[in-house]
Structure formats: structure tokens, C-alpha cells
Automatic annotation (TrEMBL), chains A, B:
Residues 3-32 form the HTH cro/C1-type domain. One of its GO terms (molecular function) is transcription cis-regulatory region binding. CDD domains: HTH_LacI (cd01392), PBP1_LacI_sugar_binding-like (cd06267). The lineage of its organism: Bacteria, Bacillati, Actinomycetota, Actinomycetes, Glycomycetales. SMART domains: HTH_LACI. InterPro entries: Cro/C1-type_HTH, HTH_LacI, LacI/GalR-like_sensor, Lambda_DNA-bd_dom_sf, Peripla_BP_I. Residues 2-56 form the HTH lacI-type domain. This is LacI family DNA-binding transcriptional regulator. It comes from Glycomyces luteolus. The keyword ATP-binding does not apply.
Length: 335, 335
DNA sequence: CCACAGCAGCGAACCGGTTCGCTGATCAAC
DNA sequence: GTTGATCAGCGAACCGGTTCGCTGCTGTGG
């Protein structure tokens, strides 16, 4: 309700002085500042975001661009959105949700309407088309995900390669010489999903180093299909008895498939996985695992974006958050 | 980049004429309009959201206030956020996420900073404190949830009472005379959660009408605790063999508990439940059930809010979205 | 005692739109 | 031919902040 003019009148000073107090950009004597503060409190004044945005050409808002993703695990999404919003608030920013199926269009509109100061892109893929309008307008942005080529944009992600290596090491250390590698659907790798590919190639590489034979199995889409596929994998006597999983649906469904076949962990099968932290919050997942770190990743992303906004020309940054492996006894030690 | 002044110059008209074309509020001859449209296209102009907000005192943004506890325990949340954002965009609004632990403070700040035109409150409880600043500032809002007293604010929610009645009917129709009612933790009811209480009292009432004896069991918090509690319930020979569930954690965990005890559905137990639609998308939930309708609920909420913003003094509305029961053969017909 | 530096606060201009009263042109009626 | 109504478009004022050059006062040094 109250405007800066009301505050000025109440405090007996000029509008510009009030502004100086509010922004802190100019020295104001303690006495005047006290008068202004009192007036602000009395009138319950707070700055009009739109007016300030117009004057400063800073909206203090970040656009969070959610990719279009039917197939992916959306329960995890909420954790990221909340973590992003919390981190943004801490830096004085608010978060605008951009969920348009056509992410490029969403970005374009937000830019030309000057709705945000920068973007955080979720579900990044290699050669992400959303980068085009962003780079063209020279807008600040941070990728949540680590494509091969970040095209001059800051990026942060979980270190899926490190996670994969940890899990492979864990199996190898326990004496395993071979393992089934339960992967995401093939399409995800083909579509250039950054994390899936980084995990897979790191797992392959480390497994080779450690002399662990990997039998890769791409799983289908859809809960029932996954369950059936898991059963098939578990039933095949040719398959190794250790399982390395990077597929949230499979992690969630595995207990059912084990149940179907009367198998026990770790007696009959050894299991390690990397999955969304959210999964473990709802289910008993007693698998030794590496969990995603939504809070750490999001906090880093927002900090990087805030810095990028402040200094657009500082060198491009890439940050990988190293996760922790939590042993839960789902791996049998073999001779 | 381009401002309305650039467009005016390019088109050879005044700024106000460009504005008339953009807003459509005033008649402009087809020829001038064509010139303006051409200039807009050529300069890739689109209005500066902040400037328009300042001039019109309409931000065209909606604040979505996410409750605190929700953050910890709702895989369904993402579905609601996306559905809200999609619906908002359809009405020309954008969505600002307000996730502050202290929801009241978040609302207060958004109001005094004029950041949004109205609010959508998630995870509403009876006597919700967030309504105080909203009502005091006479701000438009819509509740996603249906408290006893909506305090003059529009509200929309799934018709949990109807859902409960459907499920009770389904059991009674199949000849059951008694059922265990697996409920949320007691605290949820005590904290004034609107949907939990509406479901519970409707179930109780309908069960009485249909001569179905209900044995209520409030479940604990935490996956392992839930699993153990479920086992205890299933093991007790005194308990009825039919299960009426309103507790997402229990729905997700029940297959594990059944597995623990070697029980089959529907041979050993009949199961019906009401749960988040998200749950069924990820897991094999072959329980006869009523699912939440995030898209329908969110669309209605945004439409109601848009109307409320347009006409603040129209009569208060309450809408309940009636869900569908989907039979999946998890109920045994008894004599 | 005067000159000048330093400093707190003022005021005007500006950010990019919208709104509304007014102008000048066109045209019909008398 | 003059009057009056109609209408497209113009221009100034305004929304609520920020910014920056300027003013007038205080105080120090010569």
C-alpha cells in the first residue's frame, strides 16, 4: 500500500533519501536513517517489486525451466524445485516456474518479457535447444546437468561418474568378478541425457580397470514392464548374481521382482545402486547405494547463477558434487 | 531489448497508439495496427513485465504457497506444481514458487512487495494461518483443500468424502461386513488436515449406513515403521480380512508387508484405497482404488483464482472434484 | 576572516509501459 | 457553407521506485 513517497513524507525527508536508506548504496546519517526506518515500520512499507525491477532492470527472479519428461521420475522433481526455491530466497531471489512443454518458447518469452534475471535449466540434454535463446540474448544461466559441451554456460551436477566408480569398487572389493548393469531405457541414452551417459561410461571404464565383467541390460518403460524385465534378468541362470542399478524405477520395483521369485538379498543377489534421494524417503531401500544430493546441487546452482548475474564475464564454471556411498549390507562378500 | 518507444518510431505512430494495439483496449484502424504489428515483429518486441505491472498494478503472476511438511513427504507435489503452472500459463499467468518454511511470512512478503496478483495455497489445514495476511490485505486466493471454514476464500479439492463412500460401498457390495481402516498418522488429523478428516468421517458414516464394521488403525511415520505396523495388522487374527486404506505410505508399503507374511490379494486379503495418482504411475498398484486428480483440481483452482482476481466481490465458491473408482480385482466377493 | 573541501540530503530525470483528455480531420445534416 | 458529431491518434501525466548531479551547510586550514 504505502509508497516510497508516503515514507518520505512520514519521515520528513525526500524520496531519494528513503531510497538511499533502502538500498544502502549511499551514506545516510544515523539520525535520518532512524527516522526513515521508523516510518517504514509504521507504514509497513516494502518496495514494489515491479517498480524496482523497472528502475534497476533487475527482477530478482530466477526462471526454473522444467524439461518435458513423461518418463522420468517426477517425485524427485519436487525435491529439486523446493531446494532451488529455498536457495534462491536465501540469495534474495524468487523463483518463477517455467514448465512449458516447449522449453525454448518458455525461455524466449521470459527473456523478452524481462521476467527473470537468469535461468536454471533442469533435465539438461546434450545440445540442449534451450541454450540457443539464452546464449543469443547473453542471459545468465546455470545447467543442472553436465552435457559434453556446456556452450559457455555454467553447469553443476552430481558426479555420476564418481558415483558409478564407487559402486563398481564396492562390488569389486567384495570379490565380485561380474555384475548385471541395469540401465535406463535405451532412449534416454540416445536422447543425450547427460547423467545417464556419464554414469554408464564411468561404470564401464572402472569395471574394466577392476576386472569386473558388466552385463548391461536396458530396462523398458512402465512399472509392469520393468517388473517383468527384472524377473527375466533374475531368472536367467547365465546372469551374474550381482546387480549394479542406475534406474530409479528398477530400484523401486526390484523388491517386488525378488519377491516374485523368492530371492533374498544379499544371500541370493548382491545389489548396489545410485538413485534419487527421494526414493529412500518413501520406501525401505536397504540397498547399498549412492544417493543424489538435491539440496547441495541446487544450492550450488543458485549460488553460481547469482554470481554469474553479478559478473557476467567471469570465467565459466563447472562443478560436480561428489556423493557419498552408504553401505547397507546388500552385498555379499565372495571368495 | 526493444521498448514501446522503438516500436512507435519504427511504425511512425505514437507510444500510446502502440499501447492501444498491444492491449487491445482501444480501437485502432486496421492500417495502423498492421504497421504496429510489423514493427513489433521486426524488432522482436514484447512488453516488459515489470513496467506493465507497474502501470497496471497487475503482475500477472500467481503465488503458489507450498506448506512446509509437504516438502518432506509428498512425491505427488511435483504433479501439482506442474499442473498449476501449466494451467496458469493458459490463463496468461506465471507462477511464483513460495516455499518458505514460514508460509505466513512468505505470503506477507509477496503481498507487500506486490509480487503476485493472488495466491494458491497448498496443503491447507483448518484455521490456516496463511489466510490472515491474505484476508487482511483483501488479496484474492484459492485453497487447494477444503477446511471446515474457508473464511470467505474460494476453495477446491478432491471430493474425499465421495471417494471414501465409493470405497466403502465397493467393499460392502462385495459382501464384506468388516474392514480395517488404515489411516494416516494421528497427528495429521489433529493438525487439522482437511482431506484426512473428511475422508475419515465420510468413511465412518457410510460404513455405518452400510453395516460395515470399521477397525481404525493409525499408522506411524517412516517407511520401516509403516512396514512393521502393517505386518502387525495383517498378523492379528482378530482383524478383518478387508483393508480400506487412506495413507500413501501404506499403499506403497503394503506389497512388502504382504510379501513378508506370504499373503496374496485378493485370496487372503481384500484391499481398496484412495491415493495419489503419482503412486500408480510408478508402481504396480493393482489395488482397486480412487485416485487423486491433480490436473483437474489444479485447473479448477487456477480458473477460480483468475475469476476472483477479475471480480473480487463475486460470491465465494467451493468446488469438489468427484473422483472415479477403478476396479482392479483386489476385492474378493464373500457370501 | 575567507576560501575551500567534504558531506548530507534534495530534486529532477528516467526506467517502460498505460490511461485519458484532447486535437484535428472527416463527414453528415441543416 | 457552417455546425456538430464521430473518430483515429497524440501527448502528457502517472505508476513507484533509483540514480546522479547539484546545493547549501559545516568545519578546517591558511
Amino acid at each position: 500500500m504505502a509508497t516510497i513517497g508516503d515514507v518520505a513524507r512520514e519521515a520528513g525527508v525526500s524520496r531519494s533519501t528513503v531510497s538511499s536508506v533502502l538500498t544502502g548504496r549511499k551514506y545516510v546519517s544515523p539520525e535520518t536513517r532512524a527516522k526513515v526506518d521508523a516510518a517504514v515500520a509504521k507504514l509497513q512499507f516494502s518496495v514494489n517489486a515491479g517498480a524496482r525491477a523497472l528502475a534497476t532492470s533487475r527482477t530478482m527472479a530466477l526462471g526454473v525451466v522444467v524439461g518435458f519428461h513423461e518418463a522420468e521420475f517426477s517425485p524427485a522433481l519436487a525435491a529439486y524445485l523446493i531446494a532451488l526455491s529455498d536457495a534462491a530466497r536465501e540469495q534474495g531471489y524468487s523463483v518463477v516456474l517455467l514448465t512449458e512443454p516447449d522449453g525454448v518458447e518458455a525461455v524466449r518469452r521470459a527473456i523478452s518479457g524481462r521476467q527473470v534475471d537468469g535461468f536454471i535449466l533442469l533435465n539438461v540434454v546434450d545440445d540442449d535447444p534451450r541454450l540457443e535463446p539464452i546464449n543469443q540474448a547473453r542471459y545468465p544461466a546455470v545447467l543442472l546437468g553436465m552435457p559434453q559441451d556446456t556452450r559457455g554456460v555454467d553447469a553443476v551436477d552430481l558426479d555420476f561418474a564418481a558415483g558409478a566408480a564407487m559402486l563398481v569398487d564396492h562390488l569389486a572389493d567384495a570379490g565380485h568378478r561380474e555384475a548385471v548393469f541395469l540401465k535406463w531405457p535405451e532412449e534416454l541414452y540416445d536422447s543425450g541425457s547427460t547423467y545417464a551417459n556419464r554414469f554408464a561410461s564411468s561404470a564401464r571404464e572402472r569395471a574394466e580397470q577392476r576386472g569386473l565383467r558388466l552385463v548391461p541390460v536396458a530396462l523398458p518403460v512402465g512399472p509392469e514392464q520393468v517388473r517383468a524385465a527384472l524377473r527375466a534378468v533374475l531368472q536367467d541362470p547365465e546372469n551374474p548374481r550381482a546387480l549394479l542399478i542406475h534406474n530409479d524405477a528398477a530400484v523401486a520395483m526390484l523388491p517386488f521382482a525378488l519377491y516374485d521369485l523368492g530371492l533374498e538379498v544379499p544371500a541370493d543377489r548382491s545389489v548396489v545402486s545410485l538413485h534419487a534421494a527421494e526414493l529412500a524417503r518413501l520406501y525401505v531401500l536397504s540397498f547399498t547405494s549412492v544417493e543424489s544430493e538435491p539440496v547441495a546441487v541446487c544450492q550450488t546452482a543458485v549460488e553460481m547463477l547469482a554470481k554469474r548475474i553479478a559478473s557476467p564475464d567471469s570465467p565459466v564454471q563447472k562443478r560436480l558434487i561428489v556423493p557419498r556411498l552408504e553401505a547397507k549390507g546388500s552385498v555379499e562378500t565372495v571368495a
